[in-house]
Design goal:
Length: about 150
């Protein structure tokens, strides 16, 4: 199964994935069900988001489906990079002029989401994930086979 240190690391990555995924799904659902895609598009246009007719459904889908993927640990590096880019865009285009603190509309929260997303993109999803089930085990098998085939 792995060392206790690796198990704690993988559990930590799972906790971060669940937290980030839930937050992103909630924000995507807000854009979809509460604000509506058209309302989100209008809001993006008012905020100066480029191509709001594409950005509104794109960001909404990324937040909902990417959130589910992050929770499952599926395509974690790809979703992590997409989230990072989206949150940087939100910080620059929407929240930057309002300063740092989220209470005043600042970029504090989106910066935290970007850092968490980038961390997952770099670290990966860990063993408790579909990424590991689909790709990681195969890599471990190849590494073990190479180690066994290498003469001492």
């Amino acid at each position: 199964m792995g060392s206790p240190l690796n198990t704690r690391r993988d559990l930590g990555l799972l906790i971060v994935r669940i937290g980030l995924g839930v937050v992103m799904i909630a924000h995507g659902w807000q854009k979809y069900a509460l604000n509506t895609i058209d309302g989100t598009r209008q809001g993006f246009a008012q905020l100066g988001v480029p191509f709001p007719e594409l950005a509104a459904p794109g960001v909404t889908a990324l937040e909902i489906f990417g959130g589910a993927a992050i929770i499952l640990g599926l395509l974690t590096p790809l979703v992590g990079i997409a989230y990072t880019a989206t949150m940087i865009g939100a910080a620059v285009l929407v929240h930057g002029p309002n300063g740092f603190f989220a209470g005043g509309g600042g970029y504090e929260f989106v910066a935290l989401l970007a850092v968490l997303s980038l961390g997952l993109a770099v670290a990966g999803a860990g063993r408790f994930s579909l990424d590991h089930l689909l790709v990681g085990r195969r890599r471990e098998q190849v590494a073990t086979a190479r180690a066994e085939a290498t003469p001492a």
